[in-house]
Design goal:
Layout lengths: L1 H7 L4 H14 L13 H24 L7 H9 L14 H10 L2 E3 L1 H13 L5 H6 L5 E3 L17 E3 L6 E3 L16 E4 L2 E4 L17 E4 L2 E4 L17 E4 L2 E4 L6 E2 L9 E4 L2 E3 L4 E4 L1 E5 L21 E3 L4 E3 L2
Antiparallel strand pairs: 1-2, 3-4, 5-6, 7-8, 9-10, 11-15, 12-15, 13-14, 16-17
């Protein structure tokens, strides 16, 4: 059950690489290691694995990734131990992370992990990726300049792991040239020179030029907007809002008229939409409504059948079934 949910998270593939990576870092050590030999950090990581698995099940049921009736089974599977380890997590193999923690190249901050896990469970559906990325802060590299490294996380702050020498090397500081495009944390490479990220109100071209938590909206670094504030995309609005005609407006509750599910509140999707094969657009608007569940009614003729992501709508019975 947990496997299926993890595979079905409806976020862009480019972001899912990082979700898988973050998931792997929280779930990496102590898994399968005998209690008598596991380090305190490994045992803590193993406990966090269970917590994250349960949190993802709860988010999945709330956000329509799995049916509400499946949440208890999903949590039971999660508490049963790791079931979804792969050879790698998209950008760093599990075994490298395990070795990093065991060797001391990676330090684990349990308090940061606790905050991260609380954030994952409380995350709005569209912000799950961000919540998982916050978990990266629970791991800090300890290797100093010149020391051996296996992953980008091994090196201490202001350093990076050179892919050629596999040694930690210094990153350019504020005002120094950045021919490789990389700078120390909090800096960006602009016109081949490192400079501080821009504060709120400063002119900008991209989100990456603004300090963390700000976005480049209409060429200006801005915080997430309240209702009525300016936006280019939904990410520029506070949770509970979406971007409509360049303005943040509240997401719609049940029965609200919709053209896609992003405008609906968490736990709702846009039901009843039909597709126009000529314009390749929406022919008939739908209404925001709760997800169906296993055995409950659905409509296979609409763009959204009403079933959770891990189910399909059986056209013969018009009910949600497991594939």
């Amino acid at each position: 059950m947990l496997d299926l949910f993890v595979q079905k998270l409806t976020i862009p593939h480019t972001q899912w690489v990082f979700v898988r990576g973050t998931l792997g870092m929280i779930l990496l050590a102590g898994c399968g290691a005998p209690a008598s030999t596991a380090s305190p950090a490994s045992r803590m990581l193993a406990l966090d694995e269970l917590r994250l698995g349960v949190a993802l099940c709860r988010v999945g049921a709330r956000c329509g990734q799995i049916g509400a009736s499946e949440e208890q089974t999903c949590e039971h599977d999660a508490l049963g131990g790791p079931t979804h380890h792969d050879a790698d997590v998209g950008f760093i193999p599990y075994h490298q992370l395990e070795v990093g923690v065991a060797s001391g190249r990676l330090a684990f901050d349990s308090s940061r992990a606790d905050a991260c896990l609380d954030g994952v469970e409380a995350a709005p559906c569209r912000r799950l990726t961000d919540a998982l990325l916050d978990c990266l802060g629970a791991f800090q590299g300890t290797v100093e300049a010149g020391g051996a490294c296996s992953t980008a996380l091994d090196c201490a702050a202001t350093l990076e792991c050179d892919n050629q020498t596999h040694q930690c090397v210094s990153l350019p500081r504020d005002g120094e040239p950045c021919p490789a495009g990389a700078c120390q944390a909090g800096l960006i490479c602009l016109s081949q020179r490192c400079t501080a990220r821009f504060s709120e109100g400063a002119a900008c071209d991209t989100d990456g030029q603004c300090v963390g938590g700000l976005f480049c909206v209409f060429m200006t670094c801005r915080a997430e907007a309240v209702a009525g504030g300016p936006c280019v995309g939904d990410a520029h609005c506070l949770p509970g809002l979406y971007c409509h005609d360049s303005m943040c407006v509240p997401q719609l509750g049940a029965t609200g008229a919709c053209l896609d599910s992003l405008v609906c509140q968490d736990g709702l999707l846009c039901l009843g939409r039909t597709f126009d094969p000529i314009t390749h657009g929406v022919a008939t608007a739908g209404q925001c409504a709760p997800y169906s569940d296993l055995g409950q009614p659905c409509d296979a003729n609409h763009l959204d059948s009403g079933c959770p992501d891990d189910m399909t709508c059986d056209p013969a019975t018009s009910t949600c079934t497991k594939p």
